[in-house]
Design brief:
alpha/beta, five-stranded parallel β-sheet, elongated
């Protein structure tokens, strides 16, 4: 059990952080001042979480005193300058208040993991699997909880030869997951053959996958090796496998069961050593129940099932992805560096992205082409925010929050603050004051940037209330 020291002078915040960490099996010691922190034996802690502004000085003073113990700085005075200063002084990370629970837990988990891996006696025990557990190859970007869980599963299943079924909506990046599995497998130096089953005509699918002998059918003027055979020793990725005809499914089942193929028109079988990864946006179990997909093949494919979440369920990942795609796009086009305006970032965060990452990538590329200068605004992205109203709080839900959330000022340390979470405080404050305050005023009162305010609105499902003027 990791032992964490929390240094925070605001009682409500300190208690909330302590309860949050204890609920997730961390041992916590909390103090309310810099002097009280100095009295602690820092070698007994695995992590120190400290407010930047404390009675008697700054939390950054603990960085030097802590020695090898990592320090996470949190503050209401969120600005790029204070973040950079804290990091320059040796802080391992920086988090702005008010923060949500998932954000805090992700930071703590990441810091503790990195700290343990940096110690030779612990880091060498599990080799490369431990260090790559949450950072798969092939350019996958994401830090939300579903993606971290996916990364962990990839690191576990990749070194095996288990058949994998990847499920997710179109455009979520299923092929990237397949590449990550291949790159982390023992077959990395062998070929990975990718096949889109929906793109091959039904009359040619068996010949394409399994090959054919000369003269096997009209037009077969020469012997042809199939894609399954071409992947021998490596990985075969079958995208949209739900579109595979039943006849081809029977042949594929033989590959999985016997490890052999038979070319169209041949009477001899050939052994192949292929690791199969399949992907689909359809429900194969339902297709099997109505006879549109072989049930025995479904169970052969579904040894390990990986779910890729849609972009609308990935929180702040959409902003991280947009920034990465922007850099990749303007570099590919030999364009000068570009950036999103605050309004564009807000539009990206609020849009529902029904086409997932593929739609985001297309929107960014279009914006780079259409932008007149280095600043990209929402008009260049070409997205309609009206297409995603169901993502946010309804008016009745807003009113329910205002009526039911028990609110107390953050400096009211003695009242019934024990049940008030940071998210509750943020949601109540925004809903109560957004009609009379501008976004800039709300952000200033909360001690965060406007961008952080927009990001938290999106994460908690609280869009900006439209003006009636």
């Amino acid at each position: 059990m990791s032992h964490i020291l929390v240094v925070e002078d605001e009682t409500i915040i300190r208690q909330a952080v302590r309860r949050l960490l204890q609920r997730h099996d961390y041992e916590v010691t909390d103090v309310d001042s810099l002097d009280a922190a100095r009295e602690q034996d820092f070698s007994q802690f695995d992590l120190i979480i400290s407010d930047l502004r404390l009675p008697g000085g700054n939390g950054t003073e603990l960085i030097e005193l802590a020695g090898k113990t990592p320090v996470l700085i949190m503050t209401s005075y969120a600005s790029l300058r204070s973040a950079v200063d804290a990091m320059k002084m040796g802080a391992v990370d920086y988090i702005a208040k008010p923060f949500d629970h998932d954000e805090m837990l992700r930071s703590v988990k990441h810091i503790l993991s990195e700290s343990k891996l940096s110690q030779p006696e612990q880091g060498s025990a599990k080799g490369t699997t431990a260090s790559s557990g949450e950072t798969p190859a092939s350019g996958i970007i994401g830090s939300c909880e579903p993606m971290l869980l996916l990364f962990k599963k990839i690191s576990k299943v990749a070194p095996t030869d288990a058949t994998v079924l990847i499920q997710g909506e179109s455009g979520t990046g299923k092929e990237l997951v397949a590449k990550a599995l291949h790159m982390q497998s023992r077959r990395v130096n062998a070929p990975m053959i990718s096949v889109n089953c929906a793109a091959i005509p039904e009359t040619l699918i068996e010949s394409e996958l399994f090959g054919h002998e000369k003269g096997a059918f009209t037009g077969a003027t020469a012997l042809r090796q199939g894609l399954v055979e071409a992947a021998d020793g490596g990985t075969l990725f079958l995208d949209e496998i739900g579109e595979l005809p039943l006849e081809a499914q029977a042949r594929l089942l033989r590959v999985l069961q016997e490890g052999e193929i038979r070319r169209v028109g041949s009477v001899q079988s050939r052994k192949v050593d292929v690791r199969l990864i399949a992907a689909t946006h359809r429900n194969l179990k339902e297709l099997a129940s109505v006879g549109e997909f072989r049930e025995d093949l479904y169970y052969r494919l579904n040894v390990v099932e990986l779910h890729l979440p849609p972009l609308r369920n990935r929180g702040d990942d959409v902003l991280e992805l947009a920034e990465a795609l922007l850099v990749r796009c303007y570099e590919r086009m030999n364009h000068a560096p570009m950036h999103f305006t605050d309004e564009a970032l807000m539009a990206i965060a609020e849009y529902n992205w029904p086409g997932n990452v593929r739609e985001l990538e297309n929107a960014v590329e279009r914006a780079v082409i259409l932008a007149d200068d280095e600043a990209i605004g929402p008009e260049q992205l070409g997205i309609e925010l009206s297409s995603s109203p169901d993502r946010y709080l309804s008016e009745s839900m807003r009113q329910g929050l205002l009526e039911n959330v028990q609110y107390s000022e953050p400096n009211d340390a003695q009242s019934a603050q024990g049940d008030l979470s940071l998210d509750d405080y943020f949601m109540h404050f925004v809903l109560e004051n957004e009609a009379t305050m501008t976004e800039t005023e709300l952000a200033r009162k909360l001690g965060i940037s406007r961008k952080s305010l927009w990001e938290r609105r999106q994460r908690l499902g609280i869009p900006r209330k439209k003006s009636n003027k």
